[in-house]
Amino acid sequence: MEFTPAEVSVFFALGMAALFAGFIDAVVGGGGLIQIPALFTTLPNEVPATLFGTNKFSSVFGTSNAAWRYSRRVNMPWRTTLPAAIAAFVFSYFGAAAVAWMPPELLRPLILLLLIGAAIYTFARSEFGAVHRPQHTGRREFVYALIVGGAIGFYDGFFGPGTGSFLIFLFIRFFGFDFLHASAASKVVNVATNLAAMGYFLPNGHILLGVAVLMASCNVLGSLIGTHLALRHGSGFVRKVFLCVVSAFIIKFAYDTFA
């Protein structure tokens, strides 16, 4: 099969976007901020559901790879992570269903305020996420994990952008994780929400399989680089990338909300 120069340029652009998205996702989440605009820009004639399905297919491979690599090197907080992942998987479906009666755009001003608050809180507290000191055990840990996982799962199904970054902030703020453990835990929860979304997109044919496979391969390569750097340089590195990504989210949400 021969491709035209225009098709080759599209594939190259999407591959590079997926590579960078995989890197960002592996460290702090937020790869959708890169992949989704790239898909909409290069494939303007495709319906949105197909582009979102292609994005989820790509992301789930990179995120799964990152989760696996973190689990081999980090003492994973499974007592918190697994209940959160299960709740996120379930509630992401309800979030997707809620789109029918409440437009996601109505959430933009609220999400913008939450992102600004998270950035200010992290900037102001230099010790935030520096040390891993789990704060809860037993039933309280389980209940808090269900609440956080359910809330994030609903948000991911309903709206989506910034899910990984919000997860990291919540794992640090409410469970006492450092940035590295919070990033590792967030990958497992992200895999659950992505799989739940795929349960809708794949059966309904909302995927460009050739593009999705290409992007998934590049996304995995990016996740290998991201997890390597995060594991090598630790929480300090993850914190810096987190602040950069959240700042980028603030600029994008402000533009989309007020421009």
UniProtKB/TrEMBL annotation:
Subcellular location: Cell membrane
Similarity section: Belongs to the 4-toluene sulfonate uptake permease (TSUP) (TC 2.A.102) family.
Topology with respect to the bilayer: Multi-pass membrane protein
Protein name in UniProt: Probable membrane transporter protein
InterPro entries with a match to the protein in the record: TM_pro_TauE-like, TSUP
Record field: transmembrane: 12-34, 81-100, 106-124, 144-172, 207-225, 237-255
Entry keyword set: Cell membrane, Membrane, Transmembrane, Transmembrane helix, Transport
Annotated organism of origin: Accumulibacter regalis
GO cellular component, one term: plasma membrane
Keyword Glycoprotein among UniProt keywords: no
Protein origin, superkingdom: Bacteria
